[in-house]
Design brief:
This protein has 417 residues and is α+β, with helices and mostly antiparallel strands. Helix content is 61%, strand content 11%. It folds into 2 domains: 79 residues, Nucleic acid-binding proteins (OB fold (Dihydrolipoamide Acetyltransferase, E2P), Beta Barrel); 255 residues, no CATH class. Helix 1 runs parallel beside helix 10.
Length: 417
Amino acid sequence: MQTLTLFKNFKESRFFYSLLFFIFIFNLFVEFNNYQLLKKNEVYHTKGIIENVYKKKNYQILKIKTQSFTFFTKYNQNKNIQILQNIDLYLTTKEITFLTYLKGFYTNSFNYNFLDSTAYHKEKIYNFIDSQHLNKDISSLYNALFIATPLTPNIRELASKLGISHLIAISGFHLGLISFVLYFIIQFIYNKLHTKILPYRNKRFDIMVITSFILLFYLYFIDVPASLLRAFIMFIFALFLSRNNIKIISFETLFIVLCIIISFFPKLLFSLSLWFSIAGVFYIFLFLKYFQNLHKFLQFILFNIWIFLGMNPIVHYFFETTTLEQLYSPILTILFSIFYPISILLHAFHFGGLFDIYIEKLIDLPISNMEFFTPTWFFILYIMVSLFATIRKNIFILLNLLFIIYNLWMFVFLFIF
């Protein structure tokens, strides 16, 4: 059966994008109204949840999420503050602009009151995982993998040095693994029900719908990380396209998903994790476009290597840490697809500490690193070449030459010369 197009003509696509634009304007107006309420007085009283604690020499920086916004503030007292703890405080609003409000602002605060947060659903899972590990760094790793809590500085540095930050930040890769496991479990349960009671139903579609609702609950449960939100919307959109025999893997699909996310959640326009997630999928689609006729085994071998090399110029524009051990990232990505579902099952049955001894050895590895930034001119050139590579094969070849030269420059010349 021939695949259909999402829009029959220009009029339909114009209507769709116009609708998204008006939704974006409406949600931006809602955010501006919330901003005005915040700015109404120079001192604003709020309650929130401590999402992260950045420890400095003589003070701490708290990242606090409220119902309407996220902000950072300085805490001078020497107190052991726990992640996911509730807090009641006052903050000053004089220096806050609408742009910084959308991005997540820094402001002064005072009159702190740390509240009992035992009823908070996410903390119960956090403590359940934490109880299975003696090492707080390892506990931090698993909590980040399962419920998207912040990493300790040691694990964050290790992930950066090994080039595996994308494996720890919950995204489409994790959603794919979770949905695969859910599909298998639900299919096992649903088979008898389908045979005896609902034989007229499309079994695969029903299972995907049930899986979608479970994933939606999980997304809400872990407080809607931007990268996972992108993956979930794309998952639902792909389900819709598949149901209507419309091509799923296309750059138009990715662009539509991005527009939907920004329209309904304007603040995510400034989310680096969202843009990294979009970039990752973009290069996956680019790989599939030009290597789709390659032998499946060669595709499997080349896939993670190509994505790793292709993403490096973008990653190193924002993050400078560079090590030779990052070259193991493609192999670790393949191994992670086995490790992740197994570790979920182990934690569910309270055997989460099984791999701790090996992770501790990984943490203790002496890894030397250097700083390397992608120059702005090369970053802009690389983005432009990547976009044009979607329509011209010769430009795709140029893209490959660019990232090969870039990675040789970074890994060979940086560490040898």
